[in-house]
Each structure stands twice: as structure tokens, then as C-alpha cells.
Amino acid sequence: MAENAKPPPQLELFNSMTKKKELFEPRVEGKVNMYVCGVTPYDFSHIGHARAYVAFDVLYRYLKFLGYEVEYVRNFTDIDDKIIKRANEAGETVTSLSSRFINEFLLDMAELQCLPPTCEPRVTDHIEHIIELITKIMENGKAYAMEGDVYFSVDSFPEYLSLSGRKLDHNLAGSRVAVDTRKRNPADFALWKAAKEGEPYWESPWGHGRPGWHIECSAMSAHYLGHVFDIHGGGKDLIFPHHENELAQSRAAYPESEVKCWMHNGFVNKDDQKMSKSDKNFFTIRDIIDLYHPMALRFFLMRTHYRSDVNHSDKALEIASDRVYYIYQTLYDCGEVLSPYREENTSVLVPAEEQDMVNKHHSEFLDSMADDLRTTDVLDGFTDLLKAINSNLNDFKKLQQKLEQQKKKQQRPKQQKQQQAQKQPEDYIQAMFALETEIKTKITILGLMPSSSLAEVTKSTL
């Protein structure tokens, strides 16, 4: 850690609602409540999913580094048309299929070193809360029932589309369902769906059925975080309709409902198209980490600012892999040289040049992270420190060789005195300790410090 470090600058985050960066000020001092929309587990997760969860893991880690106590909720949509269809095709139950892919997703997240959220609720465990919320919306006159279905009435909610900024005449029906001609307004969306033959269902005041897509997150975020919380995140494709509908449902039931900061990450694109399962133009996380170290994929995703789209290419992944290998190889080489000196007590100060470099890096790291998590600049910022370690390593080894030669030749006192005026071995050692500590501290905050030993990682193919 840098000496005499100033406190971190105040964090600014881009709010999708206001369309600008704002100072992040949590509702409760020292505590942050964050909800991020999770996956629909009917297949292996693709790197578009990795994009979202790495982005919010970086935020989660940085908030914790700043000293906040973070309540992080990320859900699983474990009942859905796609899950039902896939389960029927596979000849297994919805619960079996969704649970299997939830477990696979969690393995992928562990490989990418995404910290487990505080809570990972499943929709099917919160049907009671969903029914209660729908009932409240209906009591407030914002929804209507029709033949076992319940629809949200967008005409009853003037704020509708305040998040996305869309016009109502541009508002298309939700992408997951066909248009229902029984609706009062084509834009009305399902809160509850009447059961179809052979589908899982639950008892409700409107008959057998299951939740619509959007209501689940309104119910679960309110249950775990309350009606007002700090951050709601997800991919930018969720702004409409999912988050727009969430916002409408929550406020229709409880007008005081509010998300202080809406955050959305960019896509991963392949051939200039958003990567998605429905378009069958995706790579799974497994596809990539079979070829590259998981930290190479994490680095690749962080190399682009979280709000921008990432362009997938083999070349970009190769570059990320090379960069990660360079970091780990440099740290490994440094660690090998420093190993004999780690237990030594010394009064020698870190040389001024390296101390200034560490202080500068520490300050620039905090400035970049505080400015809406500019990870692109942060990753570029390691270059000078890594070069400095390698330079010190080379000079240290040369000096050691020179001193060994001098020792053998038993040089005259005058020459020995001249040698004392130059940089000594302990100066190099302290310089490398300081540089190594700074890099390790910062890549740990970013989730890029490998879980296995550096020796093991550098021996493997990155």
C-alpha cells in the first residue's frame, strides 16, 4: 500500500435513469444494498452473462474495498417458458433442469472469481411474495385479471417508460410472449399467467398459474432489500422491457419504491451483433476457458469499460491472455528472487523513485475506479510497475554477479568504497517488495489474483 495515501475520492457511478454520472451516496452510511438480475438457467451460460457478472463483481469488490457492508442479491429465474420447453425436450422436470444449470453457472462464476452474492434467491421459493405483490397492485387499481391471467395496466401508470425514455407508440410487446389480443392496451404485460396443460403451476387468487417474467424481481428485491435500495444492475438489454416493468410494478404497489442508481453493462458482440442464446451466435464461458485461463477471460471483459460493448475476437482474447501471463510471470519471477529475504527485518527505506511510482499508481488507481469504474485505464496502469519490477530484477542480478566477482578478486579498499556509493542489493530488494505489494493488492481488489499459486499458473498454458 502506498505511504501517506490520501483517502479514496468519492465514487461516481453512471445512473441510467438520469443519464449521467452522479456521486454515489448510499441511503445508510457505510452500507450498500444492490440487486442484479440473474440468469434463466436452461443452458450453459455464455460470455455475455460473464460480462454482466464480472462487471458487477468489480463493483461489489470495490465497494467492499472502500469499507462498505454490501448486501448483494442476484436471483435465478428458475421458472420460464424456455426452461419448460427445454425440460420437456430433455424428458426431465423443470426443477431438475434449472437446478442442474444453476450449479453449472455457479461453477463458471467461481472459475471467473466472481464473489458469491450475499443471497441468491430462486423465483420458485418466492411465489407467496409474488402473489402478495400482484394483489397489492390490483388493489391499487393498476392491474386487471382476465381468464386466469393478470395484466399490468400501463395506462394507469403515467410514469411508465421513464427509465428507458421510449415513447408508448414505440412500445412493443415483451419479447418472451406472443401478443394477447384480450389486453386493454397492447403494451400491458403479464404479472400472472394462467396454467397451460402440462406446465408447473401454483395456487393463486386467479386460479392455477405461474408468475410473469418481470414481477419476480420486484418481489424479491423488495423482500431482501426493501422498497428503496441503492443499486439495481443488469445488462442494458434489460432496461426495456424488464427494468421498465419492474419499476412500474414496484411503484404501482408501493409509491415510495425507488432505486437510487440504475446501472447497466454493455453487450458482448460477435460480428456486430449482440451475443445471445436465442440468436445462436454465442460462446459459452466453458468454450472460452477450455482454451484460455479463466483470468484471461476476466481480463478481456474488464479491458473494455463496463458500459461499452465488448467486441469478441480470438485476437483480443490472445492479447488478454498474453497480458495476464506477463503479469503472473513477472510476479512469479519477483517472488522467486525475494523469497530468501521475506523474513528479514530491515531499516532500509524504499528508494524514492519506486516509492513515488507506487504512490502515483495508488492514486491513479483510486481516481480511475472512482470515475465510474474505469477498469480500462486501471489495467493499462500496471504496465509501468511491471516494467520497473523487471528492470530491478535484471539490475539486481547483475549487481549480485558483480559483487560475487569482486569478492573473488578481493578488490582494493578504494574500489570497494566506490562501490558503496552505488545502489545496494537491499535497495533493489525493498524496491521490488514495494512494487510487488502494490500490484498484488490492486489485482486482488479487481479479482485478478489467481486462486492457485503463481508457479502453477505460469506453468499452465494461458
UniProtKB/TrEMBL annotation:
Residues covered by region (Disordered): 403-425
Alphabetical list of InterPro entries matching this protein: Cys-tRNA-ligase (IPR015803), Cys-tRNA/MSH_ligase (IPR024909), tRNA-synt_1_cat_dom (IPR032678)
Keyword annotations of the record: Aminoacyl-tRNA synthetase, ATP-binding, Ligase, Metal-binding, Nucleotide-binding, Protein biosynthesis, Zinc
Annotated EC: 6.1.1.16
GO-annotated cellular components: cytoplasm
Cofactor(s) the record lists: Zn(2+)
Top EC class for this record: ligase
tRNA synthetases class I catalytic domain residues: 24-320
Keyword Hydrolase: no
Family: Belongs to the class-I aminoacyl-tRNA synthetase family.
HAMAP family (UniProt xref): Cys_tRNA_synth
PANTHER family: CYSTEINE--TRNA LIGASE 1, CYTOPLASMIC-RELATED, CYSTEINYL-TRNA SYNTHETASE
Annotated protein name in UniProt: cysteine--tRNA ligase
Organism: Zizania palustris (Northern wild rice)
